[in-house]
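User: quick one, fold this
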Amino acid sequence: MTKTFGLRTPTDLYRKLVHDIERLDTAPYSAPLSYAAYDCAVTATHIADWVVHTVGSAQHLRLTGKTTGHNEAMKGFGQTNAKRLPALEFCRQIANAVKHVKVTRGPTMDNMTTGRSVRFDPPIDFTQPIPPDQKMLPHAYITVDDKSYPVINLFRDMAVQWQQFLLEEGLFEEDQDE
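Assistant:
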């Protein structure tokens, strides 16, 4: 018996990340946008846990630099795989901050923040009458070194990185129609 609602593998959690990104992309207003962004960060971060708990001893040592059961295996995973999964540390920081209100473990990225606002589609020219088909859409962003980006780009990059990682490590499973 598990407590994972039928999810069994790192690939299952990867697919949840893809689903969370779709929710983020289609969020109709700010609250669902924030919830989906939070879920993306948490899911992306915890795929690492699933990988570490799935692999055998030799692969565990190679991926973490630690023996199976070592209490710093996750820290080792992040350090060992930082170049393969460059978006992971951003996701970890966001997930940890949302869960604990502020980052409570590991180094903090003081140059990074997140937020939400709205954007207009098409962009508004305030010198002209507002078109009748004007839409106001929720927008979640990440700011790094005073430059802001749509946070969905981070999560999409993370999904690509995880898929490549899982494929390279022999952990990616083809989709089984249920």
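User: anything notable?
Assistant: The chain has six helices and three strands.
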